[in-house]
Design a protein that fits this description.
Elements: H1 15-28, E1 33-38, E2 48-50, E3 56-58, E4 60-62, H2 68-78, E5 83-86, H3 109-114, E6 120-123, H4 128-141, E7 146-149, H5 153-166, E8 175-176, H6 189-223
Parallel strand pairs: 1-4, 1-5, 6-7, 7-8
Antiparallel strand pairs: 2-3
Length: 224
């Protein structure tokens, strides 16, 4: 099912830059995007989405009378459209140069609730309260392959107490925290990141391995 994401924030918050970056990310993966911009916004020329750092792309103009659904359907018949991006403001600053899909959210836990079953979640924000909120949401959905939270054993204990008080006793037994914890004494961020990646890959592939083991056992039983 198609999804509509609405981003809003103050001026100079990075919306247009993020939009152009997202479009680039989709196109880099061989996907097609459509860009729209209001016809009345001609500060950088008609039919252009421009960021203050110089990024620019041509875009289809629309007015209050434009039927976007008809336009998208017509374009989709010509070639599949994977993502539709609508721009309203252009004064932006680049926030991230990584080639990943970026989703600005006022309520980030919505992304957790909308994630496909079997997703992995690594929680490592700048705020303990937000960490607790997102981690509890990831545990609450009940179908995550991996839920990890940055922090210490003390922080994990505080989360357990917080879940007892605010989440009706939500269990954190399925939580990995601290993340990337091994016998290694090397605490460089890049080393810990590698260990976390290993944890996530193990969790994401364990289901496939279990399914393969079950299939192999069934074949052996059939052979007997």
């Amino acid at each position: 099912m198609a999804k509509l994401y609405f981003y809003y924030s103050s001026m100079n918050a990075g919306k247009s830059t993020s939009l152009l970056q997202s479009s680039y990310n989709y196109r880099e993966r061989g996907m097609r995007t459509l860009l729209f911009t209001p016809q009345l916004d001609d500060r950088y020329g008609e039919g252009k989405i421009t960021s203050r750092i110089g990024l620019q792309r041509e875009a289809a103009k629309f007015t209050k009378d434009t039927d976007l659904f008809v336009h998208v359907r017509r374009q989709h018949r010509e070639a599949p459209v994977h993502c539709v991006l609508v721009d309203m403001r252009k004064e932006e600053l680049a926030q991230c140069q990584a080639r990943v899909d970026m989703r600005l959210r006022a309520i980030p836990e919505v992304e957790i609730y909308n994630a496909p079953a079997g997703s992995a979640f690594i929680v490592l924000t700048h705020d303990h309260g937000l960490d607790f909120l997102l981690t509890s949401a990831a545990l609450e959905i009940g179908h995550a392959s991996y839920v990890g939270m940055i922090g210490s054993a003390t922080k994990r204990a505080k989360l357990r107490s917080w879940c007892n008080s605010h989440c009706n006793g939500l269990s954190i037994d399925q939580l990995t925290s601290p993340i990337g914890a091994t016998a290694s004494r090397d605490k460089r961020p890049e080393i810990i990141a590698a260990f976390v990646a290993a944890e996530v890959l193990t969790a994401l592939t364990s289901g496939a391995r279990a399914a393969g083991d079950t299939e192999e056992a069934a074949l052996l039983e059939a052979a007997q």
